[in-house]
């Protein structure tokens, strides 16, 4: 063993004398790094500056806002604008703030997300693994439907909802959001299920598993990332929707975004910018929380085949 170690040491001596090999490590403050990080910093400031202005304005009183320095932090922090935006601001004849609209949005978003994801995941699973007659035509129609402008179908849907007695109700709006969310979600689920190993599906068929058995026991446990992607897309789209909310509902069941528009564009009384900013932040709070909580799974779902053809 000693002779072997001597031979190894003899071979290592020239390498030690020659010094380390390979490319030299890059300097931390090279021109390239300064340019990249400088550009990222400028872009971040550009996008975060409006958010900063909104936050500091929502924490100021109106006398301080009238001084005109929108970038200055609040001298005296007050949460009164947030309280007023939530419970006291007037949205038309109603002066209950955004609280009613918040719960209306929850009652719209939750069932719409569950229904659209459940049906779209089944559609994508069937299109990826169970080739039936007319599957390609069905998939083509779905893809075509994903790119039809919503404005083209506003009036026909109004007539349909009126005829079935759901116009102006939350149930009608839930149906609309569920239908419009299905084409793009079906595309996402179909592409994701196509990217899974086909051997798993074939092995389950050999073992006697049927349509529902394979879906619940194999596909669902492996599809958490794509379900998170679909949930984020639907929650963000439905919660931030204004057009469908103002067209297919009435004042008593307006979602939060429609009430926000009524608060911000009110022409009566003093323009309370701090209340407007607080109301805007409250309206966007739910999508932000969803992104922060499930951001990593969203990236995993995209990387695992959510947008692969």
Keywords, separated by commas or semicolons:
single chain; 309 residues; mainly alpha; MetI-like fold; 2 domains; 15 helices; 0% strand
Describe the structure.
By secondary structure, the protein is mainly α. The chain folds into two domains: 29-78, no CATH class; 99-306, MetI-like (MetI-like fold), CATH 1.10.3720.10. It contains 15 helices and no strands. It has helices at residues 2-18, 31-58, 62-65, 80-87, 99-129, 135-146, 154-163, 170-195, 198-206, 211-219, 224-239, 243-248, 256-264, 273-283, 285-306. Helix 4 (80-87) packs across helix 14, helix 5 runs antiparallel to helix 11 and helix 11 (224-239) packs antiparallel against helix 15. The protein is flat. The model has no long low-confidence stretch (mean pLDDT 82).
Treating each run of at least 4 consecutive H or I residues as one helix, how many helices?
15
The average pLDDT is: 82
SSE class = mainly alpha
The coarse silhouette is flat
Write a brief caption for the model.
The protein is mainly alpha-helical and 309 residues long. It folds into two domains: 29-78, no CATH class; 99-306, MetI-like (MetI-like fold, Orthogonal Bundle).
Helix and strand layout, with pairings?
Layout: H1 2-18, H2 31-58, H3 62-65, H4 80-87, H5 99-129, H6 135-146, H7 154-163, H8 170-195, H9 198-206, H10 211-219, H11 224-239, H12 243-248, H13 256-264, H14 273-283, H15 285-306
Helix pairs in contact: 2-14, 4-14, 5-8, 5-11, 5-13, 6-8, 8-11, 8-15, 11-15, 13-14
